From TrEMBL:
Annotated TM spans: none
Domain Radical SAM core: from-to ranges: 50-294
Pfam hit, one: Radical_SAM
Organism lineage string: Bacteria, Pseudomonadati, Bacteroidota, Flavobacteriia, Flavobacteriales
Entry superkingdom: Bacteria
Keywords: Iron, Iron-sulfur, Metal-binding, S-adenosyl-L-methionine
Protein name in UniProt: DNA modification/repair radical SAM protein
Gene3D superfamilies: Aldolase class I (3.20.20.70)
Co-factor requirement: [4Fe-4S] cluster
């Protein structure tokens, strides 16, 4: 190995990979059966590159050569950047070396498109196959699926990778056509569909046969770029919801558009998507997956952007004040989950504990509930009535100020005791 040359490739190809945020290792669980390493369902996500965005995975591109010309991408064919390509053997050797030194827990491998989709996908699969079969590598492997790759290669990829992902990139077909004319959503959805069906098939076979090979045990994920086109937050979370419902996705990642190129189709290079928007989208995503919220409830069609000042659960509660206060000792699980400051774990604890005693705010505090927030939305006797004379803006100020006594309490007097 020429180490200087490898070092140079590593710098180029790790830097080019940093824009992809869909690299969480959550969900992987591969036991060490006498080989090298293991991966745990730990959900940790450090980064190999320097921008602080990701993982303790070695996160690289196989190449940044690309025949496509996606406007938002530094590796697009018309961009004048230094190009490089690893060989399959180089990626395998780097992964093993880094793993042995404890630098990484696995590999996140993506790629520009060399010549055509299959040529590129075949090389990605070959890396994973060599690691598993020749080096008995049990660390985590996340492979990017190349749009347009054949079914056979996708099926093979699933046998060696823990997670497969294909990036939808732009939430709407119209936006995609504008910025990535070589791509189409149907080409991306095809491999996603195949992976979903294979996952079901392997699961069914496992019920019948004792020994069934693993197929992408950490499932599949996708990424959407936020802010490169003008989709609303409502549109984005509806698209995410569609993918969760129809393709059994483990995760949708939201990547705030980072302007790197001047292009009339893109927002100005000087503009930046607020990190808070990305953050709010993740919170909205969480509400859909774990709290029973519908996309239309989180963001209303009449105002289709998420509130950047407060989180979407609190925003929903303020818009729906007639649904509060929630009686902690009597309300159904669905409503307790909707109380700002009460998470899924605390909800479980509340449901369990209230079988044995009448709960108080002090009890909630001990359970880990964020009572500073929750106290405005709960009652314990079922007699508290929301004060309809306080409008949403005042209520919002009260909660944000976090003061305890120098304001008119939005609920009944009973709650002023806390
Ligand atoms: S196909 Fe991928 S690597 Fe190539 S230009 Fe588009 S986003 Fe970039």
């Amino acid at each position: 190995m020429n180490f200087d040359r490898i070092q140079e490739k590593l710098e180029i190809l790790a830097d080019a990979a940093k824009y992809d945020v869909s690299c969480s290792s959550s969900g992987g669980s591969r036991k060490n059966k006498g080989g090298l390493g293991n991966s745990q369902a730990s959900g940790i996500c450090h980064t190999y590159t320097e921008d602080g965005r990701c993982v303790s995975l070695l996160k690289i591109l196989l190449t940044n050569h690309c025949i496509f010309d996606c406007a938002y991408c530094v590796s697009r064919k018309t961009n004048d950047v230094k190009r490089a390509a690893f060989t399959v053997e180089e990626v395998v050797e780097l992964t093993i070396n880094f793993y042995r030194r404890n630098y990484i827990e696995g590999l996140f491998l993506s790629s520009g498109i060399f010549k055509d989709s299959d040529t590129t996908m075949e090389r990605l699969v070959r890396v994973a196959k060599k690691l598993r079969l020749e080096h008995n590598f049990n660390g985590y492997i996340h492979l990017k699926s190349i749009p347009g790759a054949s079914d056979e290669l996708m099926k093979e990829a699933g046998l060696y990778a823990d997670r497969l992902s294909i990036n939808i990139e732009i939430p709407t077909e119209q936006g995609l056509k504008l910025l990535a004319p070589d791509k189409s959503h149907s080409e991306m959805i095809k491999p996603m569909s195949l992976v979903k069906n294979e996952l079901i098939l392997y699961k069914e076979e496992k019920k019948i046969f004792r020994k069934v090979p693993k197929f992408a045990p950490a499932g599949q994920s996708t990424q959407m770029i936020v802010g490169a086109t003008n989709e609303t937050d409502l549109k984005i979370i509806k698209v995410a919801d569609h993918f969760y419902q129809n393709f059994n996705l483990k995760r949708v990642y939201y990547s705030g558009y980072v302007p790197v190129l001047e292009d009339s189709r893109l927002p100005s290079i000087h503009s930046q998507v607020p990190m808070q928007r990305e953050n709010r989208l993740y919170q909205a995503d969480w509400l859909m997956r774990f709290y029973g919220f519908e996309a239309n409830e989180i963001v209303e069609p009449s105002n289709p952007f998420l509130d950047l000042e407060i989180d979407p659960k609190l925003a929903w509660a303020l818009r729906n004040r007639e649904r509060f206060p929630v009686n902690i000792n009597m309300a159904p699980k669905e409503m307790i989950l909707r109380v700002p400051g009460i998470g899924t774990k605390s909800t479980g604890k509340i449901l369990m504990a209230r079988k044995f005693q009448k709960l108080t705010l002090e009890n909630l505090k001990k359970m880990g509930v964020a009572v500073n927030r929750a106290k405005y939305f709960v009652s314990f006797e079922g007699t508290n009535v929301f004060n309809r004379f306080i409008d949403e803006q005042n209520f919002r100020n009260i909660i944000l100020s976090g003061t305890k006594s120098k304001y008119q309490n939005p609920f009944s007097q009973q709650l002023t005791l806390f």
